[in-house]
Amino acid sequence: MGSSDLNLKKSWHPSTFKNQERVWKEEQKRKEEERKLEQLKKELAEERQLQELQQMQEESGAKQKSNKLDWMYAGPNASMNGSNDNSMEDFLLGKKSVDELLRAKQRQEVVS
């Protein structure tokens, strides 16, 4: 007689349309975020490669560096040295503490 599944009427059941829709939306958000992260990684790699090429040109003497407004249009990571490229990323990801970053910066200032 009552062959319908009573679990389909429960709000927590995974087979309900509402819960399936919620899962699908979360999966779409995750995919979109991953796509954005990949795009940002590609852009960052291109910027680093461009900076390396410009530095190689300057070192070889083929191109003179212009110190006018280049710093204004450069990205936020452009001012860092090669050894500190990922230090801020490591800090944001929780791999490094603030103390280590400050000590490293003080050592660089003392050496300079």
Biggest sheet statistics: none
Compute the number of helices: 4
SS-based structural class?
Answer: mainly alpha
How many strands in all? 0
Radius of gyration over all CA atoms, rounded: 25 Å
> Termini, distance in Å?
86 Å
Report helical residue fraction.
Answer: 55-70%
- Mean of residue pLDDT? 82
The geometry reads as elongated
Secondary-structure element series: HHHH
Low-confidence stretches: none
Beta strand %: under 5%
What does this structure look like?
This protein is an all-alpha fold and 112 residues long. Helices cover 61% and strands 0% of the residues. The chain is built from 4 helices and no strands. The protein is elongated. The model has no long low-confidence stretch (mean pLDDT 82). Residues 1-23, 54-89 are annotated as: Disordered. It is found in: Nucleus. Residues 11-47 form the CBF1-interacting co-repressor CIR N-terminal domain.
In short:
It is found in: Nucleus. It contains four helices and no strands. The radius of gyration is 25 Å and the shape is elongated.
What keywords describe this structure?
single chain, 112 residues, mainly alpha, elongated, nucleus, CWC25_splicing_factor, mRNA splicing, mRNA processing, CWC25
Record the SSE blueprint.
Elements: H1 17-60, H2 70-73, H3 87-92, H4 98-111
